[in-house]
């Protein structure tokens, strides 16, 4: 369980270069690549829905049970088939050429691969359930995330999740860059690509046609009860917010839109 | 019978309790005090800097480091100027312990105080500096205003700066002269695509909509 304190911002495509250069100067670092593949799983049985339709015995109160969407995430690097080593993707990302990227991945000219695949083809996945961010007037968003690592091969993942009672709902890619500010604040700048692999062929489509970039600055704190660390993290984020204020408008995300709890409408 | 000299408040001390009378007139008190005060302020700022670095998990902000570094440098140059100014006075004095100094108990302190030879790590610093200066090829012992020497020195400084510049990433920062000479047209080290599509609409998806997709899969 980890408490994630964050601030977010939208970066116009035109400002991308400027923002990246400023962040390189501010953090004194070269950007590192941020690339991961995500699958959102939803439960097969929606208890809230069943309850609302009185489809199950009403003597059982299901209101106490909270179901959540599950997110499975693994990192990837692009590589061309036949070549052993994954390409360094930072320059590819900085080229900001999404049309080419989508075409390449969709056509299989480059594949998405795991950095640390074992001999059995097993991948390291992170299994995440996130709570709705805390309510109330606050300076930064604060969200509880539960996370474990699992090892599965890509083909076994589906049946693994099926056994848990979950089916795939949406698959997407995150492509971007990350920085570390002051040694504590993670800054991620990314774009989101939806993957549709239904008819046997992969279609990769950026979710935002205007190709804006999204920025998330966050600090993870191990325990929500550790008030001094939480306060330190909040002030670190506030400092970043102040320092980049003229360039990037960091704001608190809308907690309602980050709610991955299951409700009764299907 | 002659009276012993009256002490403060009229108390007459015993003659044997009187401290021996020393002649301090030839001690360069002003010069030593001036150096001492400057050394004190230097140790204080060094302690403060050390404390600040050791305290937090991360380094202090660079602005703070830089300003403290400037303070230390100013204090160092003040001390060196002070010592240089009083060089003749200080160099011609010999230091020795007084009769009543507890030599056996304070042997360590005494050897430190009387030591004229630099300690081994200081010797190493001096050797390093001398080696560095030799590499520069500048004779810094000459205190004349030879323009040629100055030019040589400035030239070597520039060379070092250029070398240091290669170790870091500087870009998109140009002087007016460099812009006039077209030097700002250098390719970007990260090959950032500088083409901007003009037909891209300014408004697009907000980060909240993107987060909604990331957390719920809804578009």
UniProtKB/TrEMBL annotation, chain A:
Q: Where in the cell is it found?
A: Nucleus
The organism's place on the tree of life at top rank: Eukaryota
Q: Which InterPro entries match?
A: Mediator_Med18 (IPR019095)
Q: Is Transferase set as a keyword in this record?
A: no
A GO cellular component annotation here is: core mediator complex
Gene3D superfamilies attached to this UniProt entry = Hypothetical Protein Pfu-838710-001
Q: Which UniProt keywords apply?
A: Activator, Nucleus, Transcription, Transcription regulation
- A GO biological process held by the record: termination of RNA polymerase II transcription
Query: Which function does this protein serve?
Result: Component of the Mediator complex, a coactivator involved in the regulated transcription of nearly all RNA polymerase II-dependent genes. Mediator functions as a bridge to convey information from gene-specific regulatory proteins to the basal RNA polymerase II transcription machinery. Mediator is recruited to promoters by direct interactions with regulatory proteins and serves as a scaffold for the assembly of a functional preinitiation complex with RNA polymerase II and the general transcription factors.
The protein's name: Mediator of RNA polymerase II transcription subunit 18
Give the species this sequence originates from.
Saccharomycopsis crataegensis
From TrEMBL, chain B:
Q: Which UniProt keywords apply?
A: Activator, Nucleus, Transcription, Transcription regulation
Question: Which GO cellular component does the record give, naming just one?
Answer: core mediator complex
Single biological process term from Gene Ontology: regulation of transcription by RNA polymerase II
Chief place where the protein resides: nucleus
Q: Has the keyword Transcription been applied to this entry?
A: yes
Q: Does the keyword Translocase apply?
A: no
Where does the record place the region Disordered? 1-21
A molecular function annotated in GO for this UniProt entry is: RNA polymerase II cis-regulatory region sequence-specific DNA binding
General function of this protein: Component of the Mediator complex, a coactivator involved in the regulated transcription of nearly all RNA polymerase II-dependent genes. Mediator functions as a bridge to convey information from gene-specific regulatory proteins to the basal RNA polymerase II transcription machinery. Mediator is recruited to promoters by direct interactions with regulatory proteins and serves as a scaffold for the assembly of a functional preinitiation complex with RNA polymerase II and the general transcription factors.
Family membership, please give it: Belongs to the Mediator complex subunit 8 family.
Q: What interactions and quaternary structure are annotated?
A: Component of the Mediator complex.
Q: Give the protein's recorded name.
A: Mediator of RNA polymerase II transcription subunit 8
């Amino acid at each position: 369980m980890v408490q994630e304190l964050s601030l977010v911002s939208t970066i116009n495509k035109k400002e991308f270069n400027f923002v990246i250069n400023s962040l390189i100067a501010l953090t004194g670092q070269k950007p590192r690549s941020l690339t991961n593949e995500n699958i959102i799983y939803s439960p097969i049985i929606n208890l809230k829905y069943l309850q609302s339709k009185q489809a199950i015995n009403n003597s059982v109160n299901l209101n106490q049970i909270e179901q959540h969407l599950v997110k499975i995430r693994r990192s990837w690097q692009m590589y061309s088939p036949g070549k052993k080593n994954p390409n360094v993707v930072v320059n590819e990302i900085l080229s900001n050429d999404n049309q080419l990227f989508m075409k390449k991945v969709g056509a299989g000219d480059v594949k998405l691969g795991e950095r640390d695949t074992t001999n059995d083809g097993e991948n390291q996945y992170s299994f995440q359930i996130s709570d709705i961010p805390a309510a109330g007037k606050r300076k930064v968003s604060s969200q509880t995330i539960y996370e474990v690592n699992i090892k599965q091969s890509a083909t076994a993942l589906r049946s693994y999740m099926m056994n848990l009672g979950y089916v795939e709902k949406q698959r997407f890619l995150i492509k971007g860059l990350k920085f570390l500010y002051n040694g504590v604040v993670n800054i991620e700048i990314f774009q989101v690509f939806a993957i549709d692999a239904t008819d046997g062929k992969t279609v990769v489509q950026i979710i935002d046609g205007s190709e804006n970039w999204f920025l998330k600055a966050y600090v993870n704190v191990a325990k929500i009860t550790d008030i001094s660390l939480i306060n330190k993290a909040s002030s670190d984020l506030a400092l970043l917010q102040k320092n980049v204020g003229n360039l990037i408008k960091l704001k608190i995300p809308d907690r309602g839109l980050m709610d991955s709890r299951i409700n009764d409408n299907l | 019978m002659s009276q012993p000299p009256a002490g403060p408040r009229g108390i007459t001390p015993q003659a044997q309790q009187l401290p021996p009378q020393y002649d301090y007139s030839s001690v360069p008190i002003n010069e030593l005090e001036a150096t001492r005060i400057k050394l004190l302020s230097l140790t204080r700022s060094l302690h403060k800097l050390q404390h600040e670095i050791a305290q937090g998990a991360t380094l202090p902000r660079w602005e703070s480091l830089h300003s403290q570094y400037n303070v230390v440098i100013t204090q160092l140059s003040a001390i060196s100027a002070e010592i240089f100014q009083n060089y003749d006075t200080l160099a011609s004095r010999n230091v020795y312990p007084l009769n009543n100094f507890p030599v056996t108990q304070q042997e360590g302190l005494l050897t430190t105080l009387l030591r004229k030879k630099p300690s081994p790590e200081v010797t190493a610093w001096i050797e390093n500096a001398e080696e560095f200066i030799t590499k520069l090829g500048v004779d810094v012992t000459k205190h004349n205003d030879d323009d040629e020497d100055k030019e040589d020195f400035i030239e070597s400084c520039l060379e070092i700066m250029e070398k240091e510049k290669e170790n870091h990433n500087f870009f998109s920062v140009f002087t007016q002269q460099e812009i006039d000479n077209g030097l700002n047209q250098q390719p970007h080290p990260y090959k950032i695509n500088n083409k901007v599509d003009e037909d891209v609409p300014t408004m697009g998806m907000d980060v909240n909509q993107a987060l909604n997709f990331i957390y719920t899969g809804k578009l």
